């Protein structure tokens, strides 16, 4: 997403954060409502074109949203979507993408307010690793002919009773309506939203042996000093990793090709 659409999304996220700062707003319910709005916008091509038509005034489009959604969703959801359509968009599908992202972000906010964001981040990461390691499971979750009920049932068997309810809702939404994304891409986008909520970055750390809690704290601190921000660690164990540790943040990989930074990371593990 670029240009006007990117600016509109940033404004929408700020509006969502302001709304959910109130303790009276149920962020999880808001996430569910925004997911429903996303489905409507994704299905109704003519509607989203009207709502992103630059020749129509923002107020006119906001009034249309109000007339369509009032009584169907909460006032907070109406306000958020009305704010989105007042903005300018580079393309009509960007409005759908933004509404979907705000739905996921509302779920992240709900987890954060409940003190469960760390758990949700870790569960999403672990679920992604389980899916990546099982061709059969991945096929079952991505089979277009499989119904939403069947997929939800499978997710319930995998995560029900073992994962946070927010994790289950996020995974279910992604599996049922991938909108052109792979499972891995969708889960990574959730990870980035969680990191954004905390004002930190996410590091994928691969080590030859499991890390102790003390080593995790040292490594996180060393990376935070490198990047000037808090760093959340998603950790994998691979006995064959070169040098004993490999760190990936975004597109940057810290390994033997960046020896000085790798040495700093390794020393943090050794104390």
TrEMBL record:
Q: Can you say where in the cell this protein is located?
A: Cell membrane; Membrane
Instruction: Fetch the InterPro entries from UniProt.
Output: ATP_synth_OSCP/delta_N_sf, ATPase_OSCP/d_CS, ATPase_OSCP/dsu
Q: Which GO terms describe its molecular function?
A: proton-transporting ATP synthase activity, rotational mechanism
| Transport is among the record's keywords | yes
Q: How does it sit in the membrane?
A: Peripheral membrane protein
Matching entries from PROSITE patterns are given as: ATPASE_DELTA
Checking Pfam families in the record gives: OSCP
Keywords, A to Z, come to: ATP synthesis, Cell membrane, CF(1), Hydrogen ion transport, Ion transport, Membrane, Transport
User: Can you supply one Gene Ontology CC term for this chain's record?
Assistant: proton-transporting ATP synthase complex
What family does the database annotate? Belongs to the ATPase delta chain family.
Q: What is this protein called?
A: ATP synthase subunit delta
Organism whose genome encodes this protein: Kitasatospora xanthocidica
């Amino acid at each position: 997403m670029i240009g006007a659409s990117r600016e509109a999304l940033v404004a929408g996220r700020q509006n969502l954060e302001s709304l959910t700062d109130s303790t009276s707003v149920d962020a999880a319910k808001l996430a569910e409502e925004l997911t429903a709005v996303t489905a409507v916008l994704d299905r109704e091509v003519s509607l989203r074109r009207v709502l992103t038509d630059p020749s129509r005034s923002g107020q006119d489009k906001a009034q249309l949203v109000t007339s369509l959604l009032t009584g169907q969703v909460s006032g907070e959801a109406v306000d958020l979507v009305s704010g989105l359509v007042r903005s300018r968009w580079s393309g009509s599908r960007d409005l759908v993408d933004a509404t979907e992202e705000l739905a996921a972000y509302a779920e992240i906010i709900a987890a954060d307010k409940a003190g469960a964001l760390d758990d949700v981040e870790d569960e999403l990461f672990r679920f992604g690793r389980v899916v990546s390691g099982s061709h059969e499971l991945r096929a079952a979750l991505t089979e277009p002919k499989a119904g939403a009920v069947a997929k939800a049932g499978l997710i319930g068997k995998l995560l029900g009773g073992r994962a946070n309810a927010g994790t289950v809702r996020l995974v279910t939404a992604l599996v049922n309506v991938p909108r052109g994304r792979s499972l891995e891409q969708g889960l990574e986008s959730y990870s980035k939203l969680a990191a954004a909520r905390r004002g930190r970055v996410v590091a994928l750390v691969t080590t030859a042996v499991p890390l102790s809690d003390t080593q995790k704290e040292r490594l996180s601190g060393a990376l935070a000093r490198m990047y000037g921000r808090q760093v959340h660690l998603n950790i994998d164990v691979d006995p064959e990793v070169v040098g004993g540790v490999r760190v990936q943040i975004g597109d940057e990989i810290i390994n033997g090709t960046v020896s000085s930074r790798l040495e700093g990371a390794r020393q943090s593990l050794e104390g």
